[in-house]
Amino acid sequence: MNQSTGNLPKSVTVQSPASVANLVCGFDVLGMSLSNPYDLMKVERTDATGITIRHTDEYQLPTAPEQNVAGAALLALLHEYARPAGFDITITKCIKPGSGLGSSAASAAGMVVAANHLLGAPFGKEDLVRFAMAGEKVASGVKHADNIAPCIYGGITLIRSIFPLDIVTLPAPRLFVVAVHPQIEVKTSDARQILRKEVLLKDAIKQWGNIAGLVAGLLKNDYSLIGRSLEDVIIEPVRSMLIPGFAEVKKGSKEAGALGGGISGSGPSIFMLCEQEGIAHEVEKVMQEVFNQIGIAYHTHVTTVNPTGVTIVDG
Hints:
- This protein is of the alpha+beta class and 315 residues long.
- It has ten helices and eleven strands.
- It is 37% helix and 25% strand.
- Strand 1 and strand 2 (30-46) form a beta hairpin.
- It starts with 10 loop residues before the first strand and ends with a strand.
């Protein structure tokens, strides 16, 4: 903590990736980092104390540090760094807020990784997750780590516990990920409000089996088991009502060869896992056809699991 910053870099640019939370059955405990899309963040250490944030994108997000996801994460880090420090931050968001692809997590995770680098890496990854969770609280009102952890650790992560924080890294499968983002907004806070507060024991048992099966499938590299385990009997039946075309996308994607998939985070994005790139592009066509027929604008991404998370590209 007492390391001088005199010989450390003054600026750094990071790519901070999109992510898929829940992975269908693992509500608030499983998350996966994506290779695309990603945000770009340039962070400069300044001689004066204080935090300046500017956005070069169109989303008009708050720039006051305590109201900004990245700013809140940085403030949490600086509170424990306990030495004067100042930062100038430029954020170019390519992950649309409210997309269900971990936009807020990308900002928070990218910020703490960049700041930690500029300060000489006084904090470990678990600390960085903890700081970035303060940004998630600004975005959704809840400190959750299912998007944050894969952004910082890369690959797929299991959040065994939030308090105390206990993160387990899982093997990143060599799978293709297809995501469609219909251009509607589903706020995380709203998507949480509609969830049932109690569940039937039989549903809980089925869900536990699917989570265990998915983790076992990842550990064993068993794609068939992964596919069978991508089932959610608790959250998806409720949240899918907020996403036009969801049932058609899921049915058509599986018929096209996808292993399975579901809602990405709180939606409205939908993701599917595929063994082969050719199948992934067929699934993308299914998604496009569904939303063309409905008449809702959309963006699609064919990508892979990102094994590294936030990446330093300059500095």
